[in-house]
TrEMBL record, chains A, B:
N6-(pyridoxal phosphate)lysine: residues carrying this PTM: 198
Family label: Belongs to the class-V pyridoxal-phosphate-dependent aminotransferase family.
UniProt keyword terms in alphabetical order: Aminotransferase, Pyridoxal phosphate, Transferase
Transmembrane stretches, start-end: none
Documented EC number(s): 2.-.-.-
Pfam families documented for this protein: Aminotran_5
The name this protein goes by in its record: Purine catabolism protein PucG
Amino acid sequence: MKVPAPLVAQQRVLMGPGPSPVPPSVLAALALPTIGHLDPEFLRVMDEVRSMLQTIAGARSGRATAISATGSAGMETCLVNLLERGDRALVVRAGVFGTRMAEVARRAGAEVDTFDVPWGESFDVADLRAFAADRSYRIVACVHAETSTGVLQPLEGLRELADDLGALLVVDAVTSLGGVPVEVTEQGIDALYSGTQKCLSCPPGLSPVVLSDAALERVAARTTPVQSWYLDLSLIEAYWGGERAYHHTAPINMLFGLHEALRLCLEEGLEARYARHARMARGLWAGLEALDLAPRVVPERRLPQLTTVAVPDGVDEAALRRRLLNEFDLELGGGLGPMKGTTWRIGLMGAGATERHVHLCLDALAKVLERDARAATEAAARALAE
Amino acid sequence: MKVPAPLVAQQRVLMGPGPSPVPPSVLAALALPTIGHLDPEFLRVMDEVRSMLQTIAGARSGRATAISATGSAGMETCLVNLLERGDRALVVRAGVFGTRMAEVARRAGAEVDTFDVPWGESFDVADLRAFAADRSYRIVACVHAETSTGVLQPLEGLRELADDLGALLVVDAVTSLGGVPVEVTEQGIDALYSGTQKCLSCPPGLSPVVLSDAALERVAARTTPVQSWYLDLSLIEAYWGGERAYHHTAPINMLFGLHEALRLCLEEGLEARYARHARMARGLWAGLEALDLAPRVVPERRLPQLTTVAVPDGVDEAALRRRLLNEFDLELGGGLGPMKGTTWRIGLMGAGATERHVHLCLDALAKVLERDARAATEAAARALAE
C-alpha cells in the first residue's frame, strides 16, 4: 500500500461535549519517554494519580483508580464489579448515559428497573423513592451531569434512598468531575466513574473510578467471578495497590498526561476551578440570550460546563456546525437521540472554560446565523465582569 | 493535599517484554493537539490506521480496528464477541497468555477445554487434533508469540484443524505483530488481536483487532447480546465503519501515535523489519552464549523479539534487574508463573531491535555478572555481520 503521510497538527477550538482543549503541559507530559509499567518511577506516578484523584473526587476513604480505557469502560467497570447475575438494579434514565447504564447493567445479568425522566429535566428523589416502592436493590444508579442533555442532577437525598433500598449508590461523573463539586464521601457515593476528556482537560483514554469502602466490600464478597477479566477491580487493585502484581500493561503515556492534568486542577484549586466554570457559563448564557438562542435546560439545573441550545427553526444544524468547523476551526456538538437535529451542545470545559472561548463561540455563532455579534459579546462581557 | 511536582523525563533503555522503546516521531504524534472524535480529519486518521493495520496483519479481507484499551482487552474483545454462553472453546495453554485466554473464555460463559503444553515449548497440531478427538468447537485459540516463555508457535495446520472442528481460529499476536510475519488471510486466522507496545513501538493503550469475514458473520449471527457493551464489535464497527455512529470517545492522541508507529513499519517495509528483528536476535544469542547464559527455548522455536534466558544458579535475579535499572537505566523483564525467579526476558522489539541495544544489554549483563564483556560483544558483532 501507499504509506500515508505523517499527521499534521489541526488547531481546533474544542467547544463540544468533549474532548475539551488540552493544555500544552499535558500534551508535553504525554510525549515523555515511555518507561516500564513496573518501573519504580512509574509506580510512583500511579500513586500520585491515585491520591490526586481521591482529592479531586472528595473521597476521604475507599480507592481511586484510573481504568485503562475510556469513560464508558469506567461505567462498565462499576456495574460489572458490583452486580452479579440476578441482582436488581434501579437506574435513572434521563438521557443517553443513563440509558447506557441500564443497558450495561442488563448485559451484566442484572434485573433492571428503569426510572424514566424527560430529556432535559432532572428528577426529584421523592419521585424515585415512590417508584422504587418497597423493593430492594443492589444498586441505585444515576448520572450527575448528563452530557446528552446538559442537566446537572442534584445528588442530595440519594444516599438516604439508597440506604433505605439496601443499595449501593453509583454515579456517572464523566462530565462533572473537575467542573462542578463532586464529593464522594460527603454525598455518600459508593461508585463513581469519570472520563479524562471533559473538565479534567486530558485527552480521552482513561477512566477515573472511585469506590467507597462499602463498594470494595461488595466486590470482595462476590460469589461469582466478574464477567470481564480486563475490568475486574480485584485484579486491577492487585496492580495499583500493594502487591504490584502484573495484570495488564498500563497505558503509561496516558497516565503521564493524566498526572499533569490532575496537577493543573489542584494548582488552580478546586473552588477556583468551579467558580471559573460558573463565571464562563454566565457569560455564555448572557451572550446566547442576546443572540436570541434558547438554552434547553432551566438555569438552576443547567450544567455550567455544557450548555444545550435549541437550534432556531429552519436552520440545518449539521450544515451550520460544518461551517463553524471549516471557517472558524470551531467544534460544537450536535444533539443525540431525541435531541438530534434540534440541539447544539456547547462545552466550556476545563482549559476550554475561558473568556476567549466564550467570545469566540458567540462571535462565530452570530456570524453564521447572521445575528448581532457585538450585542452578544457585549452582553457576555457584562456578565463576565459581574 | 500537597500538589506533586511535574513529571521529569526518565531515559530508560526498554529491553523487557514491553513496552518497547518509542521513536521520537511517535511521541511527537501523541502530543499533537487533540481534535474531536467525529472531526472529519480524525475519521480520516481512523481510516488510515485501519488500512495500515490490515496491511501489516496480512488481512486481504475482513476488518481491522484498534480497540480503545490495551492488548488484554483485545483478547477479551475477540472472545466475548465470538463466544456465546454454552459454546465450546478449545484453548492451548503454553504460558500466561494462553492461560488468560482460557480464563476470559470461561468468564464469557463458554465450556473451555484446555490443551496444556509445558512452558517454553511449542505444540504439534497433530497432538492438538488428537486431544480434540471428534468434538466440535466454536473456537480454537492459541498464542502465536508467548510473551511469558519466548516461544514462537508455528500456525501451519491450525486452519485445517479449525475447519475440521467447525471452529473459528483465534490467535494472540500481541508480541508477534510487526516483529515476525503475521498473515491473517494466508494463515486462515479468523480473529487476531495485538498490542501497540511490543514490535509496533507505540506506547501501550490500544489493541489492534482483525476479524475475518467468517468471524464477522459469526458476530452478526449471535442470538444473545455481547456481555461487554464497551467491547461490542457491532457497536464499535458502527463508529469505525460507514455510519460513524457515536459509541465511545476514541482515545484520539493514542490513535495519532499508532498512526505514526504503523507508518514507520510500512516505511521500513515489513520484510526488512522482520529481517532486522532476526538479525538482532542472532547477535544477542551469540553474545549470550559467550556469556555462558542459556536461552530457555530451542533455536527453531525462539522468538527473535523476546529471548528468555535461564538465570545462573545462585543469582538473585530481581536484585540484579534492579541494579541494571539503577546503574544502567536498562530494563529487562523477570519471569512469570513457574519461570519467576529463574528467568530473564530480554526484548528486542520494534525500535529496540538495534545493534546498540544488543551491545548495551550484553555489556551491562557482563558487568553485573562479572563476566567477559568483550568476548560477548565481539561474538555479537560477528553474528551481526553475518
